[in-house]
Q: What sequence folds into this?
């Protein structure tokens, strides 16, 4: 048994003639914060989509907890413990903050048509059991006061928090965050970073795409750099910061 | 609360209009109108499950109504086609109705399986086409369905259950007892369906449907099978549509292919938009108002034309219903009973 929670082999994806992703080998080791950085168009979000099975890869394989999930449906993968957020925040606008959280937390069995129709006592009990968990998470995210507001009434930053909170209702083993700090003010960004570190301390693996380099260098255990679909550098923040290839990718070739 | 006052006033106005504008036979007009309003209201409740709850665009409701109606009628004693072939054996009506509802739900499954994986617009296109294919098949398979000649003499299966008080009332007010019985059953069904739906709406299942309506990708990211949820919603709404189709043909006493023309679907959409997408009682209220408007346009047509023929009547109907929907979309897009917070402008 390796201690990789996630492992990817020769994963490729092309759009027309453009090779968006071509990753030979990539692993996530248990209990790390890994950040994926790279210039715009490097294929980071596509890579995310491939890992979470929101897009089909052209070739290659994905292993999650040593199980081949290359053909698994995205929602099944989420049930197994791999939960993602989106670059453009996706909250359920016309549902309240509370309902957003309830939906995320409720069990598949309770959402069955017949179970809902007969409204079993066990179902009501399960729903009540969620309340405490929802309240705890909302308090941690400073959203408790907003719990009865419609999600669309939240600010951009609060929506990011709600999306994160919703993911936490799933008790994920690995959390994939697509630009958790984008469009968030510096104070709230610090707040979110702290929350991410705390989650990691509780044993949740984090893989995030983020453009805020300072933040990335501050909290990551490991930084992976992508450019033109390939991984060009991979290591501790200090190593990546001084890697020549990374500087080239960001600033263009320095040979001239 | 304001909107409920508006709704009650409108309803009172509608009833007052019916009784004031028809000097003779106003109770006859009333029963006729309330029957059609019930049938359309029930059908609109089905579309509301699709669109209001789940964000599915179904423009082929006539097919669901039709397959429910045809399945039921063919399973009970009836006479068929040009020759009027009498088939005197059949299932008891309640069992036939159950088969009708199952047939509607299965058609929903059949249409939903390939299309619900795709974007919302595909479903709209497929449902329009499916409804027309259904109608043309019914028209051409004359041996099975009676084609354009249709099916007659099946009403007795329903009318044998008619209790005595219906006859008493209908004699006193000089209305058709058969139609009154259909009206009563339709409105009882509406109440039952609304009770069941209100339960489902508050349940985790109803919440999951709303989540699907808002954002399918987020639903999948949270480990829920969005396609399956959409299929369930599609089948439930289809079955409700099937029930309304059954009442529709028992109201006519006959059924032909031409009963289920596309305009039926669009009238039901009109009722839904007037009443309020997403609300429980809205579709039924919208259907009543819709039918009062239809009755009203007939008197307007008589102002415009000396003795309007069917085509002129239909023309004026289209103009007025279209105008009304436009006005609603501009000034009250959530309909009469719809929630402003849940205004539906985008489609999944």
A:
């Amino acid at each position: 048994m390796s201690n990789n929670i996630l492992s990817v082999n020769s994963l490729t994806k092309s759009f027309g003639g453009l090779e968006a992703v071509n990753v030979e080998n990539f692993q996530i080791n248990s209990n790390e914060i890994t950040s994926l950085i790279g210039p715009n168009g490097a294929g980071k979000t596509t890579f995310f989509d491939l890992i979470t099975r929101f897009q089909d890869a052209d070739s290659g394989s994905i292993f999650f907890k040593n199980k081949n999930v290359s053909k698994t449906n995205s929602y099944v993968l989420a049930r197994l413990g791999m939960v993602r957020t989106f670059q453009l925040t996706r909250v359920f606008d016309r549902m309240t903050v509370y309902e957003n959280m309830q939906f995320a937390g409720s069990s598949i069995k309770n959402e069955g048509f017949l179970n809902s129709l007969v409204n079993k006592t066990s179902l009501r009990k399960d729903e009540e059991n969620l309340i405490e968990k929802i309240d705890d998470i909302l308090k941690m995210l400073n959203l408790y006061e907003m719990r009865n507001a419609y999600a669309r009434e939240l600010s951009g930053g609060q929506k990011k928090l709600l999306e994160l909170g919703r993911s936490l209702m799933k008790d994920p083993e690995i959390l994939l965050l697509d630009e958790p700090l984008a469009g968030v003010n510096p104070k709230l960004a610090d707040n979110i970073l702290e929350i991410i570190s705390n989650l990691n301390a509780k044993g949740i693996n984090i893989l995030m795409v983020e453009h805020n380099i300072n933040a990335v260098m501050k909290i990551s255990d490991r930084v992976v750099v992508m450019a033109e679909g390939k991984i060009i550098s991979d290591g501790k923040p200090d190593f990546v910061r001084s890697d020549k290839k990374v500087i080239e990718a960001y600033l263009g070739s320095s040979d001239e | 609360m304001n909107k409920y006052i508006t709704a009650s006033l409108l309803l009172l106005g509608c009833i007052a209009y019916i009784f004031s504008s028809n000097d003779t036979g106003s109770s006859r007009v009333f029963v006729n109108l309330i029957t059609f309003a019930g049938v359309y209201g029930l059908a609109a409740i089905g579309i509301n499950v699709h669109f209001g709850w789940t964000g599915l665009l179904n423009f082929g409701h006539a097919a669901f109504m039709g397959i429910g109606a045809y399945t039921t009628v063919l399973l009970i004693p009836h006479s068929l086609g040009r020759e009027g072939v009498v088939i005197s054996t059949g299932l008891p009506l309640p069992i036939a109705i159950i088969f009708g509802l199952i047939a509607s739900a299965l058609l929903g499954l059949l249409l939903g399986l390939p299309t619900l994986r795709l974007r919302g617009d595909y479903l709209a296109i497929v449902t329009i086409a499916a409804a027309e294919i259904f109608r043309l098949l019914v028209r051409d398979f004359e041996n099975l369905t009676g084609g354009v000649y249709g099916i007659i003499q099946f009403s007795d299966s329903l009318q044998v259950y008619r209790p005595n008080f219906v006859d008493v009332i209908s004699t006193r007010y000089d209305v058709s007892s058969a139609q009154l019985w259909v009206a009563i059953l339709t409105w009882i069904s509406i109440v039952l369906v609304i009770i069941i739906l209100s339960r489902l709406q508050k349940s985790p299942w109803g919440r999951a449907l709303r989540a699907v309506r808002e954002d399918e990708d987020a639903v999948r990211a949270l480990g829920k099978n969005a396609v399956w949820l959409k299929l369930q919603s599609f089948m439930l709404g289809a079955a409700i549509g099937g029930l309304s189709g059954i009442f529709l043909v028992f109201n006519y006493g006959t059924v032909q292919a031409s009963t289920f023309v596309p305009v039926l679907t669009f009238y039901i959409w009109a009722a839904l938009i007037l009443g309020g997408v997403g609300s429980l009682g809205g579709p039924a209220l919208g259907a009543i108002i819709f039918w009062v408007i239809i009755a009203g346009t007939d008197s307007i047509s008589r102002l415009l034309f000396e003795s309007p023929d069917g085509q002129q009547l239909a023309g004026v109907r289209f103009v007025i219903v279209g105008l009304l929907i436009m006005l609603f979309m501009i000034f009250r897009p959530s309909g009469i009973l719809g929630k402003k917070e849940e205004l539906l402008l985008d489609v999944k």
Remarks:
- The interface with chain A takes residues 196, 199-200, 203-208, 210-211, 213-215, 217-226, 229, 232, 236, 341-342 of chain B (CB under 8 Å).
